[in-house]
């Protein structure tokens, strides 16, 4: 099955991305609570300078900005980044966002207190070299002792069971309920998979069917921990959904002082 680039995938998905959630604003608020709690636990109270380096349409950035933090967004998809700016403004917060590859972040060194890379974005990088390059860049833009937050799918279990689909999600639209589901086609290496992303969107008396394709690397917690440690991060800790309240496992790490 031929795939598409991650940029093409998210450029095409950006107008419909909110339909991945039953209620996007509710999900933004819920995720902001769990991520803000981690920021405060590690760095203490107060507004922080946060880079969301895979901001998409603003799912994490907007919620964190509403919580009082100073956000900057970047995303491989210029269409998604532009929508994030618009959606933030509609909710009364400022979110400067730019199109940028997380492997070449266009920001000054030590510019941020926190870097967030959420929603299973990092696994779109398919080699250890690319992940390492991205992690080095995240470390560069963090201040000394700054906080890295990465969220990915629960790949330890997924790698063991190799599911061929993900549960459908249903979202309400003005015309009815939109349905999103995924099919996964595993590579022979057992680590990477091609994803077919289907959205069925009600249109009058029929459905509009949209299919998008991309590839991901099912990074285990051990693999990502080792790569982050090799990139110079310290105090690496995994937080599970029952303890963090977040819907995906979270890795936190510190830049460390020279």
UniProtKB/TrEMBL annotation:
Domain Methyltransferase residue range list: 50-146
One Gene Ontology molecular-function label: methyltransferase activity
Sorted UniProt keywords: Methyltransferase, Transferase
One Gene Ontology biological process: methylation
One Pfam family from the record: Methyltransf_25
Name listed for the protein in its UniProt record: Class I SAM-dependent methyltransferase
Source organism of this protein record: Streptomyces ferrugineus
């Amino acid at each position: 099955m031929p795939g598409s680039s991650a940029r093409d995938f998210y450029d095409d998905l950006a107008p419909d991305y909110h339909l991945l959630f039953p209620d996007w604003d509710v999900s933004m608020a819920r995720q902001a609570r769990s991520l803000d709690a981690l920021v405060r636990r590690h760095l203490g109270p107060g507004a922080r300078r946060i880079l969301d380096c895979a901001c998409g349409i603003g799912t994490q950035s907007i919620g964190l900005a509403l919580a009082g933090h100073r956000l900057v967004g970047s995303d491989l998809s210029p269409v998604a980044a532009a929508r994030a700016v618009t959606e933030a403004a509609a909710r009364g917060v400022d979110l400067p966002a730019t199109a940028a590859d997380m492997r070449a972040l266009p920001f000054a060194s030590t510019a941020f207190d926190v870097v967030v890379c959420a929603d299973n974005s990092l696994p779109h990088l398919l080699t250890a070299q690319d992940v390492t390059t991205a992690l080095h860049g995240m470390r560069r833009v963090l201040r000394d002792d700054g906080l890295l937050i990465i969220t990915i799918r629960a790949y330890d279990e997924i790698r063991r069971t190799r599911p061929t689909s993900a549960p459908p999600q249903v979202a309400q639209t003005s015309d009815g309920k939109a349905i999103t589901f995924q099919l996964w086609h595993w590579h022979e290496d057992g680590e990477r998979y091609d994803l077919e992303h289907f959205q069925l969107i009600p249109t009058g008396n029929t459905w509009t069917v949209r299919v998008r394709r991309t590839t991901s690397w099912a990074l285990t917690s051990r693999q990502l921990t080792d790569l982050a440690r090799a990139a110079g991060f310290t105090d690496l800790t995994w937080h599970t959904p029952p303890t963090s309240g977040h819907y995906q496992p979270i890795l936190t790490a510190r830049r460390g002082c020279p």
